[in-house]
Specification:
Largest sheet: 9 strands, mixed
Shape: globular
Order of helices and strands: EHEHEHEHEHEHEHEEEHEEEEHHE
Helix content: 25-40%
Mean pLDDT: 95
Amino acid sequence: MTTPVRLAVLGAGLIGKRHIQHVLNEPDAILRAVVDPTPIGQKIAAEAGVKWFASFAEMIAVDRPDGIIVATPNQVHVQNGLEAVEAGIPALIEKPISDDIASGERLIAAAEAKGVPLLTGHHRRHNPMMQKAKEIIDSGRLGRVLIVNAMFWLFKPDDYFDIAWRRQAGAGPVFLNLIHDVDNLRYLFGDIAAVQARESNAVRSNAVEETAVVLIEFRNGILATASVSDSVVAPWSWEMTTGENPVYPKADEACYVVGGTHGSLAIPSLEIWRNPVKRSWWEPFENERVDVEDQDPLVLQIRQFCKVIRGEEQPLVSGREGLQTLKVIDAVKRSAASGERILLN
């Protein structure tokens, strides 16, 4: 029998509460503490039957978990990560791993210097559907992949913006939503060499974008377009097509389309389109849907975190991987502001 890993969750907001519940339900883990300075955090800890602390410092003074899950506000991700590194405790940090590149670099360097595992909470890579999509692409069934289209189109209702920070710089769908899609694309197709972007806030006129279009150049030569808007009524987004989060209505549509010289792939349906005999626009198509087991990627992410803590696996999404995705988003924002094509290191 494997000894369960003792975990603490920092932050008891929306995603923190989901992590807390998943840890409570996970046989490989034990929830040791909830760390959150608010009365709500204290209440959630009491309901879960675990210790409550107002800060990491208070917790570490009396209890040392095997790992921590950081689900605090973005602005304190680096501070919490550095506290974990200093204590030698592996950390799974929700995306983005930091709210700026320089502090993210500092955190990653500190963790690597001390050999402390850091993971980034881009949980969609853990989705069995995503892993099967990568398997299909890497197998060569599509031939040479040339082009990709990724969409995040949906409508956030007006009352969503009643909370002030959602109207402020950094809170638009590029940082909040497209970052997930960029990480998915990096997982499927590799590193990104350059981006060029345009933004608009023509409807709400807030300080943040509501629509953006990005041209993405991958190092392996694949070209992609990624478009994002939280102001259109549409079903073409990860949220609306995958059924990953039951709070969103599910549509049998694609959010990503991958085009190769011998076939194309729709995601998340895993529908493959090919010419059965001769490749030609005059020839009929055959299509196939690849079956895959439906599992909650947040659960799978916690299980993998436990294995990383035990030294059984390397992180699927390391802290450095999370930082590389953040660098792409930073380049998108800089390109939209300057109108220039931005090269990535």
